[in-house]
Amino acid sequence: MIDLNYNGVLEAKALAKQAHHEEGVRELLFDKVFDNKGRESRNAAWALTHLPSSDIKHIVPHRDSLVRLVLSTSDTSLRRLALALLERLPWEESDIRSDLLDFCLLRIVDESEPYGVRALCIKLAWLQCQHYEELCVELRHTLLMLEPSSLKPGIKNTWSKTLKMASTKCPKERF
Predict the structure, then answer these.
(1) What average pLDDT does this structure show over 82-103?
(2) Taking a C-beta distance cutoff of 8 angstroms, is the pair 127, 135 a contact?
(3) Residues 29 and 83 in one domain
(4) Angle between helices 76-87 and 23-35 (to 10 degrees)
(5) What is the mean pLDDT of the chain?
C-alpha cells in the first residue's frame, strides 16, 4: 500500500519514481487524485507532477478527468497541481476545451486567485489559443487588461513571455 500522508518533496519524488516504473502505482495515484479527498489527493497529484517528461504519455489519457477536476474542485492546491499536469501536455487543435479556456481566461484577471493558478492559466490559455488567430487575439486582450506593475515576478514573467508570443503570432493590425 502507498502512504500518501507525506510532507516532503523527497517523498513525492520517490513516489514518482515508483510510479514511473510501475503502472499500477501510477494508476493508483490518478485514482487518488480524482477522489478529491484532501491531503491524499493533493499528495498524489504532487507526486504525479514529478513524473519525468518521458511519462507525459501516461497523463494524456487523464486529460478530460483533470480538466473536470480543475473546473469542479474547491481545493486551490489540488486545482494548481491539476493545472500543472495539464500544462505539461501537448495541446493540439483537437484538444482544445472551451470550458477550460473560459476558466483560464477568467482566472488570469481574477486577483483573488493565487499567482500559481493564474500563471498556469496563462500558460494553458496560450497552449490552446495558439492554434487560432481569433483566440490568440482574445488572449492578448485579456493579458493587456493586467497591470504589469501590480504583478509578482513569477506571474509577470509568464505574462510577459506569453504576451510576446501572442503579439508575434497575432496580426499587428488587429490591435
Answers:
(1) 96
(2) no
(3) yes
(4) 140
(5) 92
Contact 57, 95 (CB under 8 A): no
Helices (H), the chain: 9-21, 23-35, 39-48, 56-59, 63-72, 76-87, 98-108, 115-129, 133-144, 153-169
- The reply to whether 117 and 45 lie within a common domain is no
Statement to judge: residues 69 and 136 lie in one domain: no
Residue among 120, 161, 166 at smallest CA distance from 142: 166
75 shares its domain with 132: no
Q: Which domain holds residue 146?
A: 92-175
Whether residue 1 sits in one domain with residue 80:
yes
Q: Residue 145 phi/psi, 5° resolution?
A: -75, -20
Cα atoms in the Cβ-side hemisphere of radius 13 Å centred on 62: 25
Element (H, E) at 109: none
For 51-85, the pLDDT digits (tens) are 999 999 999 999 999 999 999 999 999 999 999 99
Per residue in 1-47, pLDDT (tens digit) is: 687 888 888 889 999 999 999 999 999 999 999 997 899 999 999 99
